[in-house]
Amino acid sequence: MRLNRFDPRNIRVGTTSGGGGGFPGGGGGKAGCGTIVIVLIAALVFGVDPAQMLGGMDQGTAPQTQQQDGAQDAETLCNSNSYALETCNALASLNQTWEPVFRQAGVPFEDPILRFPASNNFSTGCGNGSVGMGPFYCPGDQTIYIDTGFYDQLGRMAGRGGDFARYYVVAHEYGHHIQKLTGVAAAIRSAQSQNPRAANQLQVRMELQADCYAGVWAGKNRNLIEPGDLEEGMRAASAIGDDALQRSAGQRINPEGFTHGTSEQRMEALQLGLNARDDSVCDRYVQMR
């Protein structure tokens, strides 16, 4: 995928090792409704108390104890290795793609922070993190945490890597940031607390919506897609399906233990967003049927 080089002034990064949904193993839509309306719709969808949600929208948001870094820090970090540069290029593209969607809808937008952990264990706005968790988004500090070493692991899992597979990882985590901004994440967390038995099912819905959002980003930038990119993305989505991960671990396929969706579901969600190029199609994943 032919992404432009990032502008260090247009992305936010973090340099310290200290301090959502994560990756296992390592236009339209609700944004057009406005955040408050989104919360009310989500309350109806998941059967939660709107007053409780509106009162708790900012719960879990930790104070920013880390100093925000400047352009020079972004330049240094993003050029630390080729994977870091790809990640920063992807983040810049995601910001440029999603900010106009929110602006047109009149919904407040703030781009996420990107951090490359400098140690195996680190603190985040969501508690302690570790490299073994794989890439993840923390809504508490609105930060995407990525250890670039995961990309090699992803390449082994998918049988072959490719830049689009790595961009898909970043775009998926960015999808969780969108869910934070629109209130969908808060709605799902509230629904999970009220119905713990459905927690995994609700988590799967949120993860598939993030996959769909990743596809929307790719679809909106389809002119930059090169031959073989889509196949790379589909192989990555297939490799990280819950059923594939359980099978590769020698475990029995257990749908009750799914947290991200099957390989088929993840490929379908990515393809849906890519074909539609419209975030409203991704709403289906957080609507009860």
Tell me what the structure shows.
It is a single chain. It contains 11 helices and 6 strands. With 289 residues, it is an alpha/beta fold. It has one domain (10-286). It has a 4-stranded mixed sheet with strand order 1-2-6-5. It has a two-stranded antiparallel sheet with strand order 3-4. The longest helix has 24 residues, at 82-105. The protein starts with 11 loop residues before the first strand and ends in a 13-residue tail after the last helix. Mean pLDDT is 79; it is low at 25-69. This is Neutral zinc metallopeptidase.
Which SSEs are present, and which pair or pack?
Blueprint lengths: L11 E3 L20 H12 L3 H6 L15 H8 L3 H24 L7 E3 L5 E4 L2 E4 L5 E3 L4 E3 L4 H9 L4 H20 L1 H11 L4 H22 L8 H11 L2 H7 L14 H14 L13
Parallel strand pairs: 1-2, 2-6
Antiparallel strand pairs: 3-4, 5-6
Helix pairs in contact: 1-7, 4-6, 5-9, 6-8, 6-9, 7-8, 8-11, 9-11
